[in-house]
Amino acid sequence: MQGLIDIEPKQYLDFILQEGKVGQTTLNIFNLTSNKLAFKIKTTSPNLFQVKPTVGIIEGNDKVCIDISTSILLKEDSKLESKFQINACILEQDIQDLGIFWRQQDAQLIQQVQVRSRIKPAEIHQENIPQQQQQQNEVQEIHENVGQMYQSIIDTSSKEKDEEIQKYQEQVVQLSQDVSNYQLMLKSVKEQEVAIKHHGNKFELKQVMITALISLILGFIFGK
Prior knowledge:
Layout: E1 5-8, E2 12-17, E3 22-31, E4 37-43, E5 49-52, E6 55-58, E7 63-73, E8 83-90, H1 98-104, E9 111-121, H2 131-223
Parallel strand pairs: 2-9
Antiparallel strand pairs: 1-3, 3-7, 4-6, 4-8, 5-7, 8-9
């Protein structure tokens, strides 16, 4: 018989390992029909588990939650490999004693679904971290953020210094070029000054010779 119920979880009932505590989990059974269903849960290790309830009725299109816990305290080396079988069938009329109902029920009218059990290690969530550890994590995060900010400032300052040094180097090169040009210009001026003086002396000597020649000629004429 198929299509009466569905279960969640479908494959494994997970019992979270907590050292020195019993394992607990929940099994949901869904009625996929509009009829009342009777259900019954069996396990291969009845002494190892407590199932509440083991039998019951599910209204049409409704569900029930089954609480399952271990009868022993779980340890690191504990193993759970038991199977659970969920039986369900349509309830034609109100029944006072479901135990009698299940003993008399035709097996062909029963839908059977199976699920396994297993142990899972406890997951560490942020909210379960001790307050002191959480504070240490926050302090470490703050230190990392401050370090990143400081490194960013250093990088920016170093970059600005490099740009300033490069700017000064460019100014020194420009000043050196200006000095070289000034020296060339000064040399040219001096050469021009020497040339002028040289030409000037030649002009004065020529004037003196002409003047002397004229004086001689005039003296010769007037002497006559």
